[in-house]
Write a structure and sequence with these properties.
- There is one protein chain.
- By secondary structure, this protein is of the alpha/beta class.
- The protein has a single domain, classed as Alpha-Beta Barrel (TIM Barrel).
- The protein is 37% helix and 26% strand.
- Strands 1, 2, 3, 4, 5, 14, 15 and 16 form an eight-stranded mixed beta sheet that branches. It has an eight-stranded parallel beta sheet with strand order 6-7-8-9-10-11-12-13.
Length: 379
Amino acid sequence: MTAETVLSNARIVLADEIVEGSLVLHDGFIAGIDAGSSRTGEDMGGDYVIPGLVELHTDHLEGHYAPRPKVRWNPIAAVLAHDAQVATAGITTVLDALRVGMDEDADLTSADIRKLADAIEDSVRQDRLRADHFLHLRCEVSAPDCLQAFANFDADERVKLASLMDHAPGQRQFVNLETYAYYYQRKLKLTDRDFKLFCEKRMAESARNSAPNRAVISAACHERGIVLASHDDATSGHVDEAIEQGVRVAEFPTTEEAARASKAAGMGVLMGAPNVMRGASHSGNVSARTLASDGLLDILSSDYIPFSLIQSAFFLGDMVEGISLPQAVAMVSKNPAEAVGLTDRGIIEQGRRADLVRVRVDDHVPVVRTVWRQGRRVA
């Protein structure tokens, strides 16, 4: 018989309120919520207990595998380093974003990406990981090898999400060519002439590949039950295209127009937690804080800083009028979980998985003290 675990003297963040009391965990699930209880158990010292965070889009893993140009780390070691960082940031479920389709400036190859996916899946089978890992395919639809790279995941059951993205100049995130030049010309150290040729090639590839690749990938995802996301939509026309393709998540809309249209179409609007904390997009696009204040934000993603996810939830709950802490926590737990069909987690409720985070707030910064996945302490 499995002994139960009691977490007592906690401020428990439920779906629509915060209650003081105890949580009872049994066999990896939440067995009871006792508001006002003074039951004997592991004393939380009045700290918050929130649902384990659910991360849909983190680019963080690739940096552990390729920490410097032409350097490749052991893929399992890279996965373990990434896993340790996300888990200690309170993330108990993560969709690791892997590139599908490579631009000429990419340091990684499609073979590298498959090695990383294999390392994730082997580590899941061997129970090496603290968080629960799935895959998110970031499909660069303008890339000539996009479909070939996508085929590397034909039989992969851990793929939960695929995003359709086009980072060609003049498109979506980079409608402003000055922003594109700042990002790419400096990165690649190109002369003005070479940068002009680089842009012309990218735009030609987008015109040739984007539409057919979107059609093939969206059809394949619907057939396999993989949730589709659009990426960096800038106009209502982009959103109309996403609606036709059956997109359910609008990742990082770059304008309020696109965010509002996505929300009206029933998509979950996802923005970056670093955008929330900085108060602005690093690319000069719409502020996530503005969308949150206007009721247009559903899901947050850590993007490139794992700890920003829990940080942004407590920031929104504390600093943005009209958003309570339970509502902000839902943006990093319940809402992303539901968006990709993981309905067994993301909320503190009897019968749900005991994926939990103990948090204390010091000087407006959340401090992660303990993390449980399915009732087992992992951090």
